[in-house]
Amino acid sequence: MIMMNTGPFWGQLAVAAIAGVITLACFVAMFWMIFRPGEKDPRHPKYDVLRSDR
After folding, report:
1. What is the DSSP letter of 54?
2. Beta-carbon neighbour count of residue 4 at 10 Å?
């Protein structure tokens, strides 16, 4: 029987969990910056992208 895993189970699980947490944090940061950017300047370029008529 050929083992497909190349390392100990707990090490693989830790790497997958860390990668998942980082990915989730990136998605949270993305949505936070889209909906609550903190930028108040009406001439900021993002307002050209996020116009309501698009």
Report:
1. -
2. 5
Q: pTM of the prediction?
A: 0.59
Give the torsion sign (CA, 10, 12, 14, 16): negative
Is the CB of residue 38 less than 8 Å from the CB of residue 31? no
Tell me, what DSSP letter sits at residue 36? -
Q: Where are the beta strands (DSSP E) in 1-54?
A: none
- Which CA distances in Å does 54 have to 36, 37, 49, 51? 19, 19, 8, 6
Q: Tens-of-pLDDT digits for all 54 residues of the chain? A: 556 666 788 888 999 999 999 999 999 999 998 888 777 788 888 777 767 665
